Input
Amino acid sequence: MKQLEKPLSNLLERVKGKAVKRIVVAAAEDKAVLLSLREAMKTGIIEPILVGNRGKIEAILAEINFSVGNTRIIDESNSSVSAEKAVDLIKKGEAEILMKGFVGTGPLLKAVLDKEKGLKKNGTLSHFALFDIPSYPKLLGITDAAMNISPDFNEKTEILLNAIDIMHRLGLEIPKVAIVSPVEVVNPKIESTVHAAMLSMMQKRGQIRGCLIDGPLALDNAISKEAAEHKGIHGEVAGDADLLLAPDLDAGNMLYKSLIFFAGGITAAIITGASVPIVLTSRSDSEESKFMSIVLAAALD
Amino acid sequence: MKQLEKPLSNLLERVKGKAVKRIVVAAAEDKAVLLSLREAMKTGIIEPILVGNRGKIEAILAEINFSVGNTRIIDESNSSVSAEKAVDLIKKGEAEILMKGFVGTGPLLKAVLDKEKGLKKNGTLSHFALFDIPSYPKLLGITDAAMNISPDFNEKTEILLNAIDIMHRLGLEIPKVAIVSPVEVVNPKIESTVHAAMLSMMQKRGQIRGCLIDGPLALDNAISKEAAEHKGIHGEVAGDADLLLAPDLDAGNMLYKSLIFFAGGITAAIITGASVPIVLTSRSDSEESKFMSIVLAAALD
Output
């Protein structure tokens, strides 16, 4: 595959050829989460396990008219313990996706990051978003817009590798990666341009494989061939990026929200870097975005 | 005035009631710059003084069929000296706007910042952009998207004051200012949220006047009432910002370029904080944006 084709709902087609994925929800007594699960179950791509307060879960299921058949419900009223139990089910191989319900991000990640009982691999957990933007011709990955505040160079490299791994698992063999900065020139006073130069050369030297990297690129050079050529920047990545690595959380989040609220973008997002994808939607995400995030997690090879 | 109404071309109506502004161009032998001056002169709002290589200037004027009448052309082939001469003309009261031609930003700012002969006031020079975005109901100011890399708190305050001053001079008496961060809560690990909290309280205590400030606000909380209310954020600023202060250059530039390249935004921009507005367009700006930047500089009271 040469690029991830729009629309985002193509992910759903991709999932349909696969085995049903089991998704375990920590503190499932959350109406928005159960609504998005209901939509996902309709498509037949997932099979949930609900951990949480059974009484509350059943009340919401009745309220939203969601008949879960013989879905397992594991009764646990303490939300932190619920997160631990959900993680434990993954650890035992009983589910392939973790989803956050009515539990704080802190307690959930604490369970995920636990050295003995958790799901962490060696690297850094990070946020990966896949966008369908009306004004861009293909799907565009963005990382990290919601998790790592001010990653140092090693963390940034791990964030990048996490995202490349996701693109590979979506079938894109050689993603074109733009390392975004405010300018396209290396300026020792602007750390993001320094990191970008390092990552570009690491790809050229074979230290990072399975992708093409160019940077520093300003956002316009990354996504517009015309803007890139205006600056005399050529090559395969400039103007045609599949994945953008943001300088830090301030910048990544600004881009993420600008795309949704100003540019009409729709996104699917997961936390990656653990042994399984984690669906961690926020209250302010649209219904479609919550649903598509489950689909994204299920679409990974 | 309660808000700056769209479209951006309203600025032109505003200028038409004013005295013609004199604009001095440093190293005017620049085709794109002369084209935008030609458009601005057609509207009768400006009167240029061209400093630069006379031969080259006249060749371009002939090429683009731009008849400048009895416009002053001051022959100076050295572009740095040309910048100094342009600054000197401002200093002598012979022009009210400075514009960058075929001279590097470095030499131009060196002339502006010169302690004796320059145009600097006490504070910080900063970039101010005024956007017309299809998906936002009024004009939106953004600072700083192109000048200060990683401003400390005092510099950030000066950048903010510069932008508020511009909004006042455009006739908006009490701009609603959102200090943007990745999240809407104060988190000591995220410096932009700390700065935002300080600026918000400084406005409440009367240390900053002539505006309403709220922050930290994530971008969505700043420009969407619905998103703000989702987070339980009320008040006059949230969801209805006139001006956004970005955390730093990485984030400000990301927003700026996202608005232009993904959201169909049109912008007018100037450098502010000197004794006169400086028009410093970049090669990659659209024709309309270059023209509107001249109009913005001329529209200030």
About this structure: The two ends of chain B are 14 Å apart (CA to CA). The interface with chain A takes residues 133, 135-136, 146, 149-150, 180-183, 189-190, 192, 218-220, 223-224, 227, 230-231, 246-255, 257-265, 283-284 of chain B (CB under 8 Å). The mean pLDDT of chain B is 96.
